[in-house]
Amino acid sequence: MSAHPEVTLLAGVRVAWQTLPPARARREIADALVARIATASTGGTVIVGRRCERCGATDHGRPVVTGAPIQASVSYTADVVVVAVADACRVLALGIDAERGAPTRQNGLRGLIIPGQRTSLRHWTRVEAVLKADGRGLSVDPRRVRIERTLGGVHGSITGESARTERGVRPASAALGIRPRLLRVRGPRGIVISLAVASV
User: Fold this and answer.
1) CA–CA dist 128, 62 (Å, integer)
2) Which of 67, 68, 76, 98 is the most exposed place for a label (fewest CB within 10 A)?
3) Alpha-carbon separation of residue 65 from 22, 53, 112, 159, 195 (angstroms)
């Protein structure tokens, strides 16, 4: 894999991945990649920060882009960072997750969704992508995520939406009852990537 980002377009979302150089902070690389893709698609300069939906902190949480109406999501696996960037005027919710497809990793997913049962990497990345699109991430029990296949494709949702965050507020995606579409992303060899996107 190259140290330079590779970009693909899927359902109006730009997905890029890049090998993480040794001894570099992965968040720094991820934010720079989001900024590069956002700037290329909007033509303007943007600033990438973070905001936690649970506690409101800005030193962690999901990427927040200022300077342009952009939605962004980030995932890390081994030595690779994967980002998704989309026009917020066209996309209501966005989440991406990537996992390296090793047999030992598969065994490590046993019991995460259904007690005692193994979860495939594809299913797990879909669950995490839905949670990221929701905005609360793993503060929501992954067992609440439902993956459904219909004639319109594969969609995800979170059950029990009467639950609140610690601050007593549900994210906009939950309030709107968004069911993001789940797409497979062809990325670096050996890495499973799932994208959750809810379009306007």
Assistant:
1) 13
2) 67
3) 26, 15, 32, 29, 19
Contacts of residue 128, defined as CB under 8 A and 6 or more positions apart, other chains included, come to 75, 95, 97, 137, 138, 142, 194
Identify whether the C-beta of residue 178 lies closer than 8 Å to the C-beta of residue 136: no
Query: Hunting for tokens 């939950």 — which residue is that?
Result: 174
Strand ranges, E, within the chain: 6-10, 13-19, 47-51, 62-66, 70-77, 80-87, 91-100, 145-150, 153-158, 181-185, 191-199
Residue 184's pLDDT is what? 95
Which residues are registered as beta bridge partners of 63? 50
Does residue 81 surpass a pLDDT of 60?
A: yes
Name the token pair of 165.
């965050």
Cβ atoms of 136 and 54 within 8 Å: the answer is yes
pTM score > 0.90 for this model?
no
Return the pLDDT at 111: 56
Q: For 105-153, what is each residue's pLDDT tens digit? A: 555 565 566 666 778 899 999 999 999 999 888 888 898 999 999 888 9
- Alpha helix segments (H runs only) across the chain: 26-42, 103-108, 121-134, 172-175
* Averaged pLDDT for residues 176-193: 88
